Amino acid sequence: MKRIAIFASGSGTNFQAIVDAVKKGDIQAEVALLVCDRPHAKVIERAIREHVPVFVFNPKQYETKQQFEREILQQLQQKEIDLVVLAGYMRLIGPTLLQAYPNRIVNIHPSLLPAFPGKDAIGQAYRYGVKVTGVTVHYVDEGMDTGPIIAQRALYIDDGEPLESVERRIHEIEHVLYPQVIQQLLTEKGSTKNEKTSNY
Question: According to its UniProt record, which residues of this chain constitute the active site (predicted)?
Fold first, then answer.
């Protein structure tokens, strides 16, 4: 069975959606590791409750990104991880991990990339006044939300719709789309096939 590592920094709603999809059989894999860079993040509580092993680190205790990514890599190798899934992980991935897992690190972003990369993408799009936004799943490279797009799903913003409603609907899309894409990637040969698709 394929083995997934999830990287997260916050509350862990996408982490939970992935774990739930595994339980239902929608993702045929094991969530074998949570990697978290914030020792007090709520996602850690979720992982403990779901009996998922946790590697927590404080980046401030390392001199360089390379140092803590080497420790993360050791954890991934020990767990024999096939696919790395970023789910609200608020750090750029460096060469140490990218070279070890080429085309096997993916991320979900709450906008239709390349529009509105970076933090607060939903707020960015909302304040800009766009009528269509959405969710993107993409391969990870060294840039900020710049890797090749795997799948996207659009969301139309209603006139006068409050930001909270848009956020809720974006998250609902994320929790459906991400498990679907993860399952497809895991069933592709070696989990490394790199092609753009939007058939979701």
Answer: 109 (proton donor)
